[in-house]
What does this fold into?
Amino acid sequence: MLIKRLSKRLFRKVLNKLSILMYEANDSIANETLPRFGNSPRNLNIALPRCILNPEFIFLGDDISLGTGALLLAVTQYPHPWMKVDGKENSIQRFVPKVVIGNRVTATANLQIAAMSEIAIEDDVMFASNINITDGLHGYENPYEPFVYQKMFRIAPIRIKRGCWIGQNVVILPGVTIGEFSIIGANSVVTKSIPDRCIAAGAPARVIKTWDEAAKIWVPVS
It folds into this structure.
């Protein structure tokens, strides 16, 4: 009985050690296989798996940490080259995109960024999981043509200012600016700009609290 308990304890220790070694190996591979971006950031960690398109249009700050499932897409044309359909001529839209992410930005997992114009994320922004930030939308003018082949429209820059906290499952739509030190609650869809030092939530998101500088408290918005 004693030998059995010792064997189980040893097995758990070995398993834990292997898990740590695998994590460290994956982290090392992730760092060594990063593409060449538009600049040379320091202490950059983007976990595997990930998808990065046209990294020369992406500019990153230092000390960034993005969890698994990151999509960083600088879209230079639509439809994409791999979307060609035999016998169908698609008019191609061309873009000069730019993605800028500041220093010390973090994301738990599944941060999706797709830029046709410009998406700028300032320093010290914190993302939870499953965030979608896209500065253009799929067109839907023709209900008899698959929407995937219709032109992108409503293309407009997005800016998330420094110190923000973006909650779980948030969608941020084209043309939006989120002010400094603002919070976006989980499951929100941000369709309009949010001022500095506000808490916004809902679909569409609306401001539910603002910071009272005199009283040093968050004040509900009626």
Q: What stands out?
A: The longest helix spans residues 2-32. Helices lie at 2-32. The radius of gyration is 21 Å.
